[in-house]
Amino acid sequence: xxxxxxxxxxxxxxxxxxxxxxxxxxxxxxxxxxxxxxxxxxxxxxxxxxxxxxxxxxxxxxxxxxxxxxxxxxxxxxxxxxxxxxxxxxxxxxxxxxxxxxxxxxxxxxxxxxxxxxxxxxxxxxxxxxxxxxxxxxxxxxxxxxxxxxxxxxxxxxxxxxxxxxxxxxxxxxxxxxxxxxxxxxxxxxxxxxxxxxxxxxxxxxxxxxxxxxxxxx
Length: 218
Fold this sequence. Notes:
218 residues, alpha+beta, three-stranded antiparallel beta sheet, 10 strands, four-stranded antiparallel beta sheet
């Protein structure tokens, strides 16, 4: 884990092969199915932390189906088991005790738009980007299925303006993004079920559209 922590510090992202065991993977798949089949409400619009959503913006489901912080649920829809299993991974990467801030269950379907290049930190109601994000695909995934891609080293820019994920532009029209994808090597993993990728809240990343006639969960 020391090499992964060094890679996270240096590149802002590290790929963790076989980080999630079959039991945890199955618990997450069960949680996705339980929330979907129960009709539990999806996130409607969570992209505008610092201001109201513009009235002309589509719902979040234009980008992805998402359940916000399902570790708070009970029963089959809960992600508590997976969150506790991944806590030691997060603690090792941070070299400090990890505290769960939020988690997400995500489904990408054909027809949903790509996520443009962005940092996650700006969407959070916190004042510093001290943490790590762990993304776990629940099946083999690559660019054709909308798997995450990264601009390695982009975390060294520090926090940049918050992006409107519906159009890829800063939410503040007067802001300068200061990020050029051409300046950074790309990491575009082909993930196997059981892999995870850990990255900084200020690493620029994106998700292409689903190009397969299936769905991808994470």
